[in-house]
Specification:
This protein is mainly alpha-helical and about 290 residues long. The chain has twelve helices and no strands.
Amino acid sequence: MSLYARVRVFLEMIKFSHTIFALPFAFTAALLAARGLPTLSQAGWIVCAMVGARTAAMGLNRVIDAEIDGRNPRTAGRAIPAGLLGRGAVLVFIALSVLLMIFAGNMLNPLCLYLSPVALGFILLYSYCKRFTALAHVVLGICLAGAPLGAWIAIRGEAGLPAYLLALAVLFWVAGFDILYALQDLDFDRQSGLHSIPAKLGVAGSLWTARAFHLAACGFLAALYLAFHLGPFFLAGLIATCGMLLYEHLLLRGGNLDRLDAAFFNMNGYISVTLFLATLFDTLKGAT
């Protein structure tokens, strides 16, 4: 297989297109931290850090879970268990991604560089969580909450309350939709002795937990809006986000998982982009 083909398989394996879930939240935080538009240099290095971190995270997860994925009918076709990529090749991609993340952090400011090992630690922890705790979904939320928190630090060189509120919103948003996604593997997880909220609480308990998490996410976004007097576009984005989360849960009411792909991929992609665009429009409105 050519290098180009290997890269294509790797990007498909890590679902590179799903970067859209976290990257808009990073830029939302960057806009709020800059109180305007960040510089092109800052925006570029934030993208590099985000791409490096997420690529390393997904790559590590695929390597660490390769044996489990091979036993799960839903994931047996992934690149490593299917023999499309060797572990060595994937580890090379991971190493390059980690270097990109660290270099981007260095180019942003010293605190971003110093916190790189913390981010990598949570990335590594997540891939092992399902082996010993049902809270793997929350750990994943913490990992993605690093996107807005890290972007805020990239601009300001320190953390701030708006960044924490946005990070908490992302944490509960991600944990909630990851619980829904994990419903697909409920039976497999139980049979394999793996831990997840669906395996522990069943379908009904998982749906209620995800609803509670998403309600908390909306609450933190509302707190951000009220505490920092954000503009009308952000309010519209907040209302739209709450509506999309409600629709996501309506799609799955009664435990019907036939529309899980629409609930997971479509709605969550729209949510992150909507909040970013709402913040951008308020920023541009304030600049005029």
